[in-house]
Amino acid sequence: MDIENVNNACSAGASQGSTGVSGSGPSDRLYVFDGPAAAVLDNRGTVVRWTGAAEDLTGFRAEDVCGHPVQELLADLPDDLRGATETAASGRVRLWHQCGGTIDVAFRTTQVMGSAEVLVLAAPTHHVADHEQGAAFLRALSAQNRITIAVHDTDLTTVQTNATPGTLDGRPVQPGTRLSDVLCAKDAENLEAVLRQVLETGAPVVRSSQQVSWRHDPARQHALSLSAFRLEDARGRPTGVAALYFDNADQMRARRHLDLAREVAERVGGSLDVVRTAQDLADVLAPAFGDLVAVDLAQPVFDGAEPLKQLGGGDMSNAALAPTSAMWPAGIKRGESIPRLPDHPLLHSFRHGEPVVFGLDDFIAMVRVPQLVEYLVPKDAHSVMVAPLHARGHTLGAISAWRCRRSAPFTEDEADLMKQIASRGALAIDNARRYTREHRAAVALQQRLLPPATTDTPAAETAGVYLPAGGGADIGGDWYDAIALPSLRVALVAGDVVGHGMPASATMGRLRAAIQTLADLELEPDELLTRLADLIQRLAAEAPSGDRDIVGGTCLYTVYDPVTRRCAMASAGHPPPVLVRPDGTAEAVEISPGPPLALSGMPYETTVIDVEPGSVLALYTDGLVERGDRDFGQGLPRLTEALAAHCRPDRALDETGRALLADLTDQAPRDDAALLLARTRAVPAEDTAHWEIPADPAAVSQSREWITRQLTMWGLDDLLFTTQLIVSELVTNAIRYGRPPMDLRLIRHRVLVCEVTDSSSTQPRLRRARTTDEGGRGLFLVSQLGGRWGCRHGQNGKTIWSEQIIQESS
């Protein structure tokens, strides 16, 4: 701080004299810290200068302290400062405040040049700690080699950055440069547009995905995640933009692998023809995985027979090429036999079910015959990955993926991905081969596993429709379900099992039974899907090695409550539902999908929305929106428009479902499709009652009085006695074992529902009390008096409920 400013700030106070620190009058000034407080001491420790910031910090004015020893301001003196003959350079002390309290401050001192006086700077200790922590945080953040930090001024010129050689384009980024000095012009322009918007609006950008190329290597793109926020001065005026660039390559690669595996699961296996299935597999992999992809199958597989135990090159013929327009070498032609290759040690891995990767030199060394290399190797190819199509103990053929020109070489992760893809593809091809034998049994099983087409519950009326692939010729694992839950709620389910035929139908049946069992436990949607994913992992582990990849799928689980008129949902890799409101408008619900059920280790997330009575909630499988050349991004808007047009209040839901399938599906779809429509209802407000339970034993008798009044008003006097007993036991348990807040709710419909909610997560347990026990009979009485009872857990506690049937008056 400028000594001149210190002198000017308190010279007036010194000239006016002082009344003493302890004798200063009361002050109505509030403590506001806006900067370090400063004071000047003479060589005897007397205060000779006092700033306005010091007055703000302590409440004492200059005339109160100037001329007094600084010790009068100290509430105590630390041990390390007692007996000191010179002023300490720094430390911590407690100062008196004018109001009588104390302030913990950190201080630093410095000698005033050319004088015996000492300048003391002080600030509240927690402010100093915050500053030090902030500085440490910035140093640590700047040291992260996967995070590039850049500070740009209002002209978007780089002012400061931690970019070093290797973090961006391999060259240091100097202050004064612009993004266009590092990136290609178009990429720099796009990034500057984002930063300029942040600078102008003040709205931060978080995790914006960007694809960029460096100026020195424009052919190769890099994935970055950009987060940026505006910098402002003390008056709130923009001074620049801080940008954080994260290397997003690993996440993008993992996402591409996941998308590719999902696409294989969705697109491969919908055909009954072996060659068509092989072509589907090749089409998915090229060019997403390899520039050129060939699928070769054993000769017997084309005729539906089982292949030989050991395959050689001469035992296979080409079944599919992708892209078909590419210039393939003479030795790789559709329908022709593949020449037999020499026995090579690397081929042993192939025979044991593992992918094999060859560089061009390795492949040439293995083949050894130059004419055969020219006959088999595509132009400009530099590497090839060959993976066996192994399913159910048989090697059906092989996938060959070639990379050419500037494509990157295959990695170990891609070899693992190819193994999964090849396993799925092999199952699809084997399913096509075995289809005729399995089809009739699969049709019968599918019909018995699906739920009733329509249901009618207090929460909603539902109608479901199912369309098998191939216009009825192929059976898959798509399903829907509507499950009545306690407290008049309903669970709506849509799912899609990987694969087709008997295995998919059987897995679908097991998943549907598991969901119904888990639904009875009244779990939250995210927890239910987590347990379902664990079940899938166990089923996969129990399955034979050749069938493990068929155990999996996607699922959407929703729970609608007609009392609160809210719908909670979670997705395991499944498309979002579409909500059609009573006014006819429709939109897809924004949810955060978790991973498909076959994958584990990632959490699921519950989304809650409000739903008006009379709305239609549509759950579907991807076969309804992904048809022919129409992908999900095109199919979802079309489905939304069709729902808005067809869902009318005067039209039956089953008729609406059939019309939608006819409008959206092809004559012989490649994938089966399921659709569940639910028209929501609401319990009228006059059929519910709510009472807050005080944390007082007297609340038990009060709850009985409240129950008596409410049931009498509803005309349910015949249920009065049993309801009083039930409520007494539930309220007693809540007060004794639970935690506030506690609530009692009644719902009247065809049944009378009594619910007691508290903030404890303790699970109640039904037991039979012994003759000498003083307690333990509460839940036993509830189970005997009511029709049924149960307990469900929420995020903030649990709810114990009991149902009694309301007898209709004659």
The total of helices stands at 19
Q: How confident is the prediction overall: mean pLDDT? A: 80
Largest sheet: number of strands, sense, barrel closure: 6 strands, antiparallel
Lateral strand order in the biggest sheet: 2-1-6-5-4-3
Percent strand equals 25-35%
Shape from CA axes?
flat
What topology emerges from the helices and strands here?
Layout: H1 3-15, E1 37-41, E2 47-50, H2 52-58, H3 62-65, E3 74-76, E4 90-96, E5 102-111, E6 118-124, H4 125-142, E7 147-152, E8 158-161, H5 185-201, E9 205-214, E10 217-232, E11 238-247, H6 249-267, H7 274-285, E12 292-298, H8 299-302, E13 316-322, H9 347-351, E14 356-359, H10 360-367, H11 370-376, E15 381-391, E16 394-404, H12 412-449, E17 454-456, E18 460-467, E19 476-484, E20 490-500, H13 501-520, H14 525-542, E21 553-561, E22 566-572, E23 578-580, E24 586-588, E25 607-610, E26 616-620, H15 632-646, H16 653-664, E27 673-680, E28 688-693, H17 699-714, H18 720-737, E29 742-748, E30 751-758, H19 778-785, E31 788-794, E32 797-805
Antiparallel strand pairs: 1-2, 1-6, 3-4, 4-5, 5-6, 7-8, 7-11, 9-10, 10-11, 12-13, 12-16, 14-15, 15-16, 17-18, 18-27, 19-20, 20-21, 21-22, 22-25, 23-24, 23-26, 26-27, 28-29, 29-30, 30-32, 31-32
Helix pairs in contact: 6-7, 6-12, 7-12, 12-13, 13-14, 15-16, 17-18, 18-19
Describe the model.
The chain has 810 residues and is of the alpha+beta class. Helix content is 32%, strand content 28%. Strands 2-1-6-5-4-3 form a 6-stranded antiparallel sheet. Helix 12 (412-449) packs across helix 13. The chain is flat. Mean pLDDT is 80; it is low at 1-33, 165-172 and 767-777.
